[in-house]
Specification:
Elements lengths: L14 E10 L2 E11 L4 E5 L6 H8 L7 E6 L2 E2 L5 H7 L1 E3 L12 H8 L8 H6 L2 H20 L15 H13 L5 E5 L7 H18 L2 E5 L3 H7 L2 E6 L2 E6 L1 H5 L2 H8 L5
Parallel strand pairs: 3-8, 3-9, 6-7, 7-8
Antiparallel strand pairs: 1-2, 1-4, 4-5, 9-10
Helix pairs in contact: 3-5, 3-6, 5-6
Length: 266
């Protein structure tokens, strides 16, 4: 059974990263990174290209195995877990490069995302008994609700490849939500969006936290977006965490000012 937020100690982090390292041969992508994310937080990761942000997401979600350190999510150590096992535990993600089924409709894409919570096996799919049909109807209805939630309910029959870039981003979020996550990791969700779409994204992320009680992890190059949206922020540089704190604390950190926000005081 998937854990719920109620199953965890209210004072305990939902996600704990302890001294995590990742090497690719002689290249150190992550170097002793530690952080803790509380349930219900919007937690941001910023840093330049090559800082290790996406590598950290890949370690958290089972695409990479950490070379050192420990990741704990919802009270369970994730080391050795495959991506589908991490997903079943309640940590879902989107990708920097959108990964949708281009020739499937928006509704079908979200329905596919629901597979980790379905119960009908191969026999059920073949025989299509009453239980299987009821489950499929429920999946279809929920997929439609999630498309409405992210603001593209009218695009249900549209092929993913025919959606605008911003709507494709929203669709990927809806598909991740179909897994019923406790936490949602968004890898540069505002990339390629215009200013209007970015403001809509900010409202959506806040709505997901408020209505679904989600914890949000966010990688984003738009520093102002992160500063205005996140409760806490960690800054990575060359695989190391150089700063962590509230937006105000990070904004005033000398290392962050020098490396990312310019040399002038904010």
């Amino acid at each position: 059974m998937m854990p719920s937020v109620e199953d965890t100690d209210l004072g305990a982090p939902l996600l704990t990263v302890s001294e995590v390292g990742k090497r690719f041969g002689g290249i150190v992508a992550l170097d002793s990174v530690s952080l803790a994310v509380q349930p219900g937080a919007i937690y941001g990761l910023i840093g330049p290209n090559g800082a290790g942000k996406t590598t950290l997401f890949n370690v958290l979600t089972g695409l990479y195995t950490a070379s050192a350190g420990t990741v704990c999510f919802a009270g369970q150590v994730l080391r050795g877990m495959k991506p589908h096992q991490v997903l079943e535990l309640g940590l879902a993600r989107t990708f920097q490069n959108i990964r949708l089924f281009a020739n499937m409709t928006a509704l079908e894409n979200v329905m596919v995302g629901r597979h980790v919570r379905t119960h009908a096996g191969v026999i059920g799919a073949i025989c299509r008994g009453r239980g299987t049909r009821a489950e499929e109807s429920g999946i279809r209805n929920r997929a439609g609700e999630l498309l409405e939630l992210v603001g593209i309910g009218g695009q249900r029959p549209t092929l993913a490849k025919h959606l605008s870039y911003g709507d494709q981003r929203r669709l990927e979020i809806a598909r991740a939500l179909a897994t019923e996550p406790l936490a949602l990791a968004l890898d540069e969700p505002a990339a390629g969006m215009n200013p209007v779409e970015r403001q809509e994204l900010i409202r959506l992320i806040r709505r997901l936290r408020a209505e679904l009680k989600l914890t949000i992890l966010l990688i984003e190059h738009d520093v102002q977006l992160v500063m205005g949206l996140c409760d806490r922020i960690a800054v990575l540089d060359f695989g190391r965490k150089i700063a962590e704190g509230t937006p105000r604390e990070v904004r005033s950190d000398p290392l962050v000012i020098a490396a990312y926000l310019g040399s002038e005081s904010p």
